Amino acid sequence: MPDDPTPMAEGYYDPWARTAWLLVTSRSLGSDPAYADRATFVDALNDAGINADSSRVSRWESGQHAVSFRALRGYETVLGLPEGALVAANRQLVRDCEASAKPPEKVSFAGHDQRSPDVMVSDLVDRATDKDDHLTGGDWLRLATELERFELVLLSNRTWSLVCERLVHELARTTGVDQLRRFEALSTLVTHPVAQRHVLLALGAWLTDPDATSSANRSRETLAMPFPSRYNTGAWFTSSTPSSTCNPFIRRTSASTEQPEAPAARSSTATKMNWPYRRSRAVVSGTS
What we know:
The chain contains eleven helices and four strands; from the N terminus they run αααααααβααααβββ. By secondary structure, the chain is mainly alpha-helical. The strands form two sheets. The protein has a two-stranded antiparallel ribbon. α6 crosses α7. It is globular and about 50 Å long.
């Protein structure tokens, strides 16, 4: 099994050693015991369109070689994992491995989608602003990573508010891999030059919401959002004093009652997230 011997006090860890451990355990302990055999798994990866052999998989699963986005998606597909589960975990590890870590590379979940990137973004924004349309964690991660590929995204302030506030509220109501993918989506958006201000406003609205605050106080748990060093000095934005500076996807958040991929429960209290959603087409430009 791969191991990261970096001391806790070092202030740095090896993201690829930890990703390797995640790959090995996902394959060996997955729902299909046949994939515990590496040769069988390599054949399945090739059938899924991933160029792999036993030597390459060994390097991936030992932490000796960085794993590409395409390979991570291949693992998810073959092992039947939710879209973006391994990708989100890896991006968080790369993002948080040290204080001066560079952000993860820009990726695209579009794959073989026949739609142009701007049409895809517009459709996802329409869904995010429709209260009756359920978005999975994979949908949120897809939206955030596609938006990241554009230098300029023109949306009305109201549309940005609806998208970001809904994401923050769903993040606070989910657990496990559902929360992980939403957290990575929010982490991606907070580094976007256009989306950042709206993400911060949505976080502020959530933290000052009496219902959210009382729930957090009752459970003594918190929503934590790390700010990139180029925008902030590494401080954490929290609803209460956190017991440790770890990311929220490895511990439960306040009043977390949602089952995996179930629509977030709606409060009868008139809050900003109960506003009627208005569809608004996104206008994007720049390098895709």
